[in-house]
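User: I'm curious what two different proteins look like when written out as structure tokens. Can you demonstrate?

Assistant: Sure. I'll show them one after the other, since each token string lines up with its own sequence. Here's the first protein:
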Amino acid sequence: MEYLRALKDNLNINLDVFNIVSIIDILIVAFVLYRLMLLIQGTRAVQLIKGMVVLLVATAASSLLNLNTVHWLLRYTMTGLLVALPIVFQPELRRALEKLGGGDFFARPLTQMAEGDRSALINEVVRAALSMSATRTGALIVLERSTGLQELIETGVKVDGIVSAELLMNIFITKSPLHDGAAIIRGDRLAAAACVLPLSESRELSRELGTRHRAAVGLTEQSDAVAVVVSEETGNVSMAMEGTLYRRLNEAGLHELLVKYLQPTTTRSAFSSLWQRR
């Protein structure tokens, strides 16, 4: 009887502590964490956080398994990372403060691509590339995959329009205000145009390649994005992926490559009959 009375008193104390203020406190923290997750979504910070989680798990596992040397090494690695965090996440921290000061902290995230729209998206990109190839209209179209390109999207002009061949062709028409730069597709929407991409410094690239091709290769060296390039000089269609440039693609070759690399999980296969690898 005394045990039940003590249990009841303990529950009453806990209920008094867990009042409406505590609920509000938890909801505020949950909301802030949710908004922070949305803030880093679509940026390279996601991959960095995943790497830190792996290190934390490995550190805990080495401690449980009494792997003293490994644990010592991982522990000091984590200490170094904690010091480097403000530097590593400097772009994300700056963006968070800018959005907080500008009132954009509560904005909704960009629309993500639906599974059923993938085939239609690929068809529109292929149709646009082949049409611009016929008129020798230079173009650089980037398709975002798992590595976020938000930093690069912010260098261009926001569009946020449904992807269509006509929209892409109008962007890259000669003397168009947005033709100089890259158009970045996120999901089933064209996020931005006239975006600035990093140039590749690889010496293996042919000297005949221009800035568009070097920008396409440079981006894919730093991310898992796919970049489609139409040469203004020759009209040739190329595609860059993982730092490799596949040149002189025909319609079937471009379509097959896009289908392959835009799937959630893919396995490489040979398409040597459809393109020349440089």
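Here's a second, unrelated protein for contrast:
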Amino acid sequence: MLFMDIITWEPKDNDEVTRRYSEWSWPDSVEVISEWTDLSTCRYVAVVDIKDSESYAIAALPWKDICHIETFPVMETPKLMAMMSEYV
């Protein structure tokens, strides 16, 4: 299932987040669709395909002490529109 993560952190933690990210990698059980870094603030966005809750926990837990993570399910808009036409 596709999820979007919006991850933010305090400016004072920017060097530590950068250091950790350079040494970290997504678990093999998480497929990264795309990643973006907000150039204007301390924010990172990723769209990932997560197979199960354990995979999500493995990816998120190392960041819980320094980042605020918002995760929510997403779907491509054309696919949603096609589904809606069937159910509305």
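A detail about the second structure: The mean pLDDT is 95.
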